[in-house]
Amino acid sequence: xxxxxxxxxGIESSCDETAAAVYTTQGGLLSNELYSQIPSHALTGxxxxxxxxxxxxxKIVVITQQALAKANKTLNDIDCFAVTCKPGLPGALMVxxxxxxxxxxxxxxxxxxxxxxxxHVFSACIENKVPFPFLALTVSGGHSALYLVRDFGCxxxxxxxxxxxxxxxxxxxxxxxxxxxxxxxxxxxLAEAASFKDFFSYPRGNMKNLNFSFxxxxxxxxxxxxEQKAYDQETKTFLKNDDLDFKQQVASSLLxxxxxxxxxxxxxxxxxxxxxxxxxxxxxxACNKYLRNxxxxxxxxxxxxxxxxxxxxxxxxAGMIAFVGHYKAQQGxxxxxxxxxx
Length: 342
Ligand code: KG4
Ligand code: ZN
Hints:
Layout: E1 7-12, E2 17-24, E3 28-36, H1 38-44, H2 49-70, E4 80-86, H3 90-107, E5 110-115, H4 116-121, E6 134-139, E7 144-151, E8 154-160, H5 166-176, H6 183-193, H7 215-227, E9 231-232, E10 237-238, H8 244-272, E11 278-282, H9 289-301, E12 305-307, H10 311-314, H11 319-330
Parallel strand pairs: 1-4, 4-5, 6-11, 11-12
Antiparallel strand pairs: 1-2, 2-3, 6-7, 7-8, 9-10
């Protein structure tokens, strides 16, 4: 491997996206291809692990071919295969890891296992020159956490979710209201129509530390729906399908509540670590424009710049996996072919 120009193929299959990307030292991210299983999982209102594994197996070869073709590369050009090995659905992770091992072995190339969360943490650095050290708020369907990031590969967790992740709260509350999966984008649209006003003041939980807890919020919304005769718990049925105003008000109150929580935790973390130079907002929930705007304004008030990736790099993708694989390859941090999934 020529250390001056390394070519990485990134593979991601930890949940419901089958993804492949090519990243090179000189050209950056040359391709970032994805097959989303969302239409399949929308039918069941959430991810069914076995369906996810089966779809990964069907799509991984074709997505890899697409990523190589878009980058104008062949497998022979790849120096190293970087693959998500944790955390995620074990069966889904195994598809990407087994595939990467097989190709790395066949082509006699290097292999690196990547932590999916590390991918999200550094995802805003792919398109931006983010000043270190920075604070990273990673929020998606599976995780909500705050990281103190000193350098590439050098970071520590300041706070994480004690139960549900924020994206999971959006998805579960959307499901209660008979809205399609994934819930986040639908909630955002409904909330916008209600001008992002706080109608119902849902509980913010403990704002005095850097951890997150969204399961209480989900329960509070459930009880509110029951109290408003909008939800029948016995038959698990939403009863106000035709009441658009009500759905908009719930969505808006929920989004404002989550915005308050993120803003407060970021301000608290910046107060505790005033030397931090910038803030990154990453993960699927960082697609949310209302949250981006609010956090941008809050960070500006503290004299810090907020960075977020473009939408394609917020939701699960292989570009962020290839990017982390690239800096690990530069440091010679390779794995053996007995790489395990977690
Ligand atoms: O990062 P991601 O693709 O997958 C995980 O690693 O979980 O994030 C998916 C999550 C879902 O919960 C989805 O509802 C949420 O991101 N999401 C959003 C928006 N777009 C996606 N949440 C709020 N607003 C959005 N616009
Ligand atoms: Zn993710």
